[in-house]
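Please, structure for the following, as C-alpha cells.
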Amino acid sequence: MSKGGYYSMSKKSSASVKRTKKMYKKKISNIPKTKNTRKSRRMRKSNKKSYW
C-alpha cells in the first residue's frame, strides 16, 4: 500500500516538475547560448538527485 501511495505522489510531483521545466527552458531560450548548456545539464542532474 505504501509503495502505491508513494508512486501516486511521485506521479503528481513529476507533472509539476514537467511544468517547471517548460518554464525553465523558455527562460534559457531567452538568454544567449554560451555557457548555458553546461550549467543546465548540471542543474538537471542535481535536481534529479535531490528529487528522489
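DSSP finds two helices and no strands in the chain. The two ends are 19 Å apart (CA to CA).
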